[in-house]
Specification:
The chain has three helices and no strands. By secondary structure, the chain is mostly helical. Helix 1 runs antiparallel to helix 2 (44-76), helix 1 packs across helix 3 (79-104) and helix 2 (44-76) packs antiparallel against helix 3 (79-104).
């Protein structure tokens, strides 16, 4: 029992860190994108590129948090573990976000 709880906590931390890394990389790309396209006028290509990068980021971050819980539900029928894992991942993401806000507002 305790081993499963430790595994669930560990997985939720890993999932939250993975999702945070994806979001951090996306924000890094979006911040530096203007340097890559300095002489490009604002056209539909810019908006399409933004939306594509946003969609890729959403899929990667969603996969980081929901991938294994979805596997647990579909293949092993472990609804409780899957829901617990998602909730704990969201809690860790909230703690990571709160930490970033506290660091940024210093």
């Amino acid at each position: 029992m305790w081993q499963q709880i430790k595994e669930t906590i560990g997985l939720s931390v890993i999932q939250a860190i993975g999702a945070s890394a994806v979001v951090w990389l996306w924000s890094l790309v979006m911040t530096n994108l203007s340097q890559v396209f300095q002489n490009t006028p604002d056209t539909a290509t810019t908006f399409v590129l933004f939306l594509l990068i946003f969609m890729i980021t959403a899929v990667l971050a969603g996969g980081a948090v929901l991938g294994y819980p979805l596997y647990l539900v579909l293949h092993e029928r472990k609804w409780g573990t899957a829901i617990t894992l998602v909730v704990m991942s969201l809690v860790w993401l909230g703690l990571i976000a709160a930490t970033i806000v506290l660091i940024a507002t210093r």
